[in-house]
Amino acid sequence: MESVSDSTADAGRQEELSVGDPFLGKSRLLSRQCDTCIFAPGNRMHLGPGQLRALVTEAREQDSYIICHDTLPHYLHPQAKPAICRGFADRYRTQALELIERLWGFVEVNPPQPSKQHQSDEGPGQ
User: Fold this and answer.
1) What is d(CA 120, CA 41) in angstroms, rounded to the nearest whole number?
2) Within 10 Å of residue 85's Cβ, how many Cβ atoms?
3) Which segments of 17-109 are extended strands (E)?
4) Is residue 126 assigned to a domain?
5) How far is residue 93's CA from residue 88's CA, in Å, rounded to a whole number?
6) How far apart are CA 108 and CA 45, in angstroms?
7) pLDDT tens digits along 10-41
């Protein structure tokens, strides 16, 4: 059973992770898959067995979508605003995506680019 404090914390996280652009009145959708998209061949995010299936199943059961990990505030790009994963949106139709498209539309945003510090940590070609 979920406690009041749990649901309050969840509500705060949901608000913080809004893909809505308050100025344009549209939802942010990546213009292309990010470089480490969970839907890219080769498991670039090193997901455990069944993890991608679980993420997709949860999003589809909730008639929702997946937010791109690169745009999550705790990831490598804290300046990025949450955006819908292009890999998910290109593969699945859910009620949330259809409603957003019909009622408000999307604003396409480019995936965040790795910082110069992150690129130098990885080395060339990685």
Assistant:
1) 24
2) 27
3) 20-21, 26-30, 106-109
4) no
5) 9
6) 23
7) 444 444 689 999 999 999 999 999 999 999 99
Tokens of 72: 């999550």
- Whose tokens are 């937010």? That residue is 67
Greatest alpha-carbon pair distance for the chain in Å reads 49
- Work out whether the CA dihedral 43, 74, 120, 83 comes out positive or negative: positive
Q: How far apart are CA 2 and CA 59, in angstroms?
A: 20
Query: Looking at the DSSP assignment, which residues form a beta bridge with residue 68?
Result: none
Place of tokens 């990010």: 34
Summarised one tens digit per residue, pLDDT across range 70-90 is 998 877 777 889 999 999 999
Q: Which domain holds residue 42?
A: 19-108
Asked whether the beta carbons of 65 and 17 are under 8 A apart, the reply is no
Residue 118 lies in a domain: no
What is the pairing mode between strands 20-21 and 26-30? antiparallel
Q: How many domains does the chain have?
A: 1
Residue found under tokens 């819908």 = 84
Beta-sheet strand order (sheet of 106-109): 20-21, 26-30, 106-109
